[in-house]
UniProtKB/TrEMBL annotation, chain A:
This is Pru domain-containing protein. One of its GO terms (cellular component) is cytoplasm. Residues 1-134 form the Pru domain. The keyword Cytoplasm applies. Residues 207-233 have a biased composition (Polar residues).
Automatic annotation (TrEMBL), chain B:
It comes from Cryoendolithus antarcticus. Gene3D superfamilies: 1.20.58.860, Peptidase C12, ubiquitin carboxyl-terminal hydrolase. It catalyses: Thiol-dependent hydrolysis of ester, thioester, amide, peptide and isopeptide bonds formed by the C-terminal Gly of ubiquitin (a 76-residue protein attached to proteins as an intracellular targeting signal). This is Ubiquitin carboxyl-terminal hydrolase. CDD domains: Peptidase_C12_UCH37_BAP1.
Length: 393, 329
């Protein structure tokens, strides 16, 4: 099912006979999704939902290729022989061919409609790579498109924000042989793509180069902040559809579940939990009226001294109070949001959880999203706990 | 370009420690449960902060306020002593802190004479912005690293939500803050979205001692502007540190009560600042381990899923959720 398209952009289909290609004006979307590890190449009119593609081609990886149709090969700038931007989908296994035209507005400074911009070419290369069976860092690719694309961006979820080119290209002749589209532009775009993977400011990418000795909570906090700031720039992974809310951390860790748990903990487990709370909570419990009230920084020594000074009962009381607090409830909510919005890989790494595929969609570097991500998180906790138990016994 | 300002809760504990962190001495906030002149008077208030959900219907007026008079002269006065500190609001999330400052900076002075010790940082800020026009003062405030960083240090640990998911209790309405105080024995309303301070009553008719009595009817008229039930508001009084007062009059019980309140506030602020991710991870693992031992893991998940689904269904029934939107809060 086309539930999780990897990439989607505005494109129209064409009819052709012999060398003559005729674009069909219907506004549409070209998109790709994976099912059972196989890529599907789809096109639908924009008025139809993603679940009803007019074209849904099941592709064998490596068989299909997607290339721009150039006017000349080896030219510095890539122009179409028509007055629009035409791409062709070809197969090694057959002589079947399809033509599509880009429906996003030309990015050319003077509006020349036949000019393939960097972004256009990158889009084509991404589609081609997917059809070839290459693994792409989709998040990086799409972010690059947004950054380099001059305003619009294709994201896995749907809309290419660039304006529609109202006029489909006039049909023209196309060269009879394909290929060599990439050579025409000079620099190997695949190198560009991977270099940009290391750079960039979004927390998700930056994480991969950070040492794992960093404070995990801080790492996740940075990610949460990056979501706040860049929610318009970072494409969230496609939601898993309106039919699977799964559940939330708030619904799982309600006080009625967590408080009974506290009453079963051993003193060692209690101390472990206390270590994850702000030290002031423990020094405050010891305070008398005469203690000055400006102490905002409690040293680690003071903190552990304070924890040690408290009885098991007192520690349980503090934990119960925290588990009931509105501040924890808010955090449960925001961590759920983080998981749903693509933070699963970061969160699971920070917490040392064993999550399937590292929290990504199978076969892509796109993080899981929506209810699926929360489910993967819950499963990951379970797996981790089971393994820890086995290794102890 | 200033850095970002996060949302902070409008809570007496947050505000008290915020101004304390800025260097203000001996001032605190108290929440007012009722609009009763006597209980307000008992606090000997320096000012009142009125906060409410900003109604979309009411636009800031430019020629005449709905109640009171614009007093442009007070801001423009050449006399340093007389001139009122008033700033135009530039950033929504800063408006709480801005309202607090608008009272503090106008009440700065020798505590012996009934003024507030605002500390060196705010003292410098007041001097620096003294001759500025209102909009420039607002800019200076939003650009002040110290004020912004202190403000942000009290921000919620979870300041964002995505469109698809909201957590229970989240309020994404805009709150607006207005300060009322007596300056130069005159009752003023200081609203950063208005072009000038608004004077209520005659100049000189409101010395600080009668501020509580004078401000209550003004607040009542304000509240009555909005249809009953349509406005949610909160009132915070700014007053002298109540522990100091309790000590001065030898009220041991009162002192203990105030100390307990302070501990409560510090507890809440500690939680507000805390990053709970690691803690949640440990609790999740602990509960999961317990459920696996008891053999109730699946039941636990299923119950949670039912609760989530019920909430989604309830919201759909109320028409709060669109067809495709997945709201699982």
């Amino acid at each position: 099912m086309a539930a999780n398209p990897l990439i989607t952009f505005k494109a129209g289909k064409c009819t052709f006979s012999g060398k003559k290609v005729t674009p069909v004006p219907t506004p549409g979307y070209l998109y790709l999704y994976f099912e059972d590890d196989m890529p599907h190449f789809c096109w639908r009119p924009r008025s139809q939902p993603a679940s009803h593609p007019e074209i849904d081609l099941f592709m064998v990886p490596g068989d299909g290729s997607f290339e721009p149709v150039p006017r000349e090969y080896g030219a510095e700038e890539l122009h179409s022989p028509t007055n629009g931007r035409i791409y062709t989908l070809k197969f090694q296994s057959s002589s079947q061919k399809h033509f599509f035209w880009m429906q996003s507005k030309s990015q050319h400074a003077e509006g020349t409609p036949s000019w393939f911009s960097q972004r256009d070419q990158r889009l084509g290369q991404i589609v081609n790579s997917i059809l070839q069976g290459e693994e792409l860092d989709m998040e990086a690719e799409v972010a690059d498109l947004r950054n380099g694309g001059g305003g619009g961006g294709a994201d896995g979820d749907g809309d290419d924000e660039m304006d529609v080119d109202e006029h489909p290209p006039e049909h023209g002749r196309h060269p009879s042989t394909g290929g060599a589209g990439q050579g025409a532009t000079g620099a190997d775009p695949r190198e560009e793509g991977s270099a940009s993977r290391e750079g960039g400011g979004d927390g998700a990418r930056a994480l991969s180069s950070q040492p794992s000795s960093q404070d995990p909570s801080a790492v996740v906090q940075n990610f949460l902040k990056s979501l706040q700031g860049s929610s318009q720039n970072t494409p969230p992974p496609p939601p898993s559809g309106a039919d699977k809310p799964y559940t939330t951390l708030s619904d799982l860790l309600t006080p009625s579940q967590t408080i009974p748990y506290i009453s079963t903990t051993t003193p060692a487990q209690l101390d472990n939990l206390c270590a994850f709370l702000p030290p002031e909570l423990f020094t405050l419990s010891q305070e008398s009226s005469s203690t000055p009230d400006h102490a905002t920084h409690t040293s680690a020594a003071d903190a552990s001294a304070a924890i040690d000074a408290l009885s098991t009962e007192q520690k349980r009381e503090i934990l119960v109070r925290v588990l009931r607090s509105p501040q924890l409830q808010q955090s449960l909510g925001s961590l759920t949001v983080a998981l749903r919005d693509g933070g699963l890989p970061i969160v699971s790494e920070a917490l040392g959880l064993k999550v399937k595929n590292g929290g990504n969609v199978r076969h892509a570097s796109v993080p899981l999203g929506g209810g699926e991500a929360v489910e993967a998180f819950v499963d990951g906790v379970r797996t981790t706990v089971e393994e820890e138990k086995k290794s102890k016994s | 370009m200033s850095g970002g300002w996060n949302t902070i809760e409008s809570d007496a504990g947050v505000f008290t420690y915020l101004i304390d962190s800025l260097g203000v001495k001996n001032v605190q906030f108290e929440e007012l449960i009722s609009l009763d002149p006597d209980s307000l008077q008992a606090l000997n208030p320096l000012g009142v902060i009125f906060l409410f959900k900003y109604p979309t219907g009411e636009k800031p007026t430019t020629d005449k306020p709905l109640d009171g008079e614009f007093d442009f002269a007070a801001v423009d006065s050449q006399d340093d002593e007389e001139r009122l500190w008033f700033a135009a609001q530039t950033i929504q999330n800063a408006c709480g802190t801005q309202a607090l400052l608008s009272v503090l900076l106008n009440k700065a002075g020798d505590p012996e004479d009934g003024g507030i010790d605002i500390g060196p940082n705010l003292g410098d800020f007041k001097e620096f912005t003294g001759a500025f026009p209102a909009d420039l003062r607002g800019e200076a405030l939003s650009n002040s690293d110290l004020i912004r960083e202190t403000h942000n240090s009290f921000a919620r640990s979870s300041p964002f939500t995505s469109d698809a998911t909201r957590y229970a209790g989240e309020d994404d309405d805009v709150f607006h803050f207005i300060a009322y105080t007596s300056i130069n024995s005159t009752l003023y309303e200081l609203d950063g979205l208005q072009p000038a301070p608004i004077r209520h009553g005659d100049a000189g008719a409101c010395p600080s001692e009668i501020f509580a009595d004078a401000v209550v009817p003004v607040l009542q008229r304000r509240i009555e502007r909005y249809p009953a039930g349509e406005i949610r508001f909160n009132l915070l009084a700014m007053c002298e540190d109540l522990r100091v007062r309790a000590k001065e009059v030898g009220d041991a019980e009162g002192l203990e009560r105030e100390e307990a309140k302070r501990r409560e506030w510090r507890w809440e602020n500690a939680l507000r600042r805390h990053n709970f991710v690691g803690f949640i991870g440990e609790v999740m693992k602990g509960v999961t381990a317990q459920k696996l031992e008891e053999g109730s893991h699946e039941a636990w998940i299923e119950d949670a899923k039912k609760a989530t689904q019920k909430r989604v269904d309830d919201r759909k029934k109320k028409g709060e959720v669109g067809g495709d939107e997945m709201d699982v809060s």
